[in-house]
Write a structure and sequence with these properties.
There is one protein chain. This protein is an alpha+beta fold. It is built from 3 helices and 6 strands, in the order αββββαββα. Strands 1-2-3-4-6-5 form a 6-stranded antiparallel beta sheet.
């Protein structure tokens, strides 16, 4: 299993109310791009959230949440949230909201080749 299909469907439903959302398979899971910027994703049984690096430590310290690591390097501004921390709808909405709110300030991905 590359990613949790139920969690991906939950994210898909949440993101459906927003314009300019695109799904891409990457990093061994599925990523949801919002306004051409990586916003949230699902990898295995975790929700990957791109958040404001200024609140990274505070958010990563919450139960069921951790910093995202790639190639033994901590990725500031990216956290992984376990399924157990997403049981309550308010908790799921909290993490989704952090990612969507940060999207306006986030740097855009590399420009697409035409």
């Amino acid at each position: 299993m590359a990613y949790n299909e139920q969690l991906a469907a939950r994210v898909r439903d949440y993101m459906a109310k927003l314009p300019n959302v695109e799904e891409k398979k990457m990093m061994g899971g599925i990523t949801f791009m919002y306004n051409d910027k990586m916003c949230v994703g699902v990898k295995k049984d975790e929700l990957m959230c791109r958040i404001d690096p200024d609140i990274h430590d505070e958010v990563a310290a919450k139960p069921g949440c951790r910093s995202m690591d790639m190639s033994a390097k901590t990725m500031r501004g990216f956290v992984m949230v376990s399924l157990s921390a997403l049981d309550a709808e308010k908790d799921f909405a909290y993490y989704m909201g952090l990612s969507i709110d940060f999207n306006a300030k986030a740097a855009s991905s590399k420009s697409k080749k035409k």
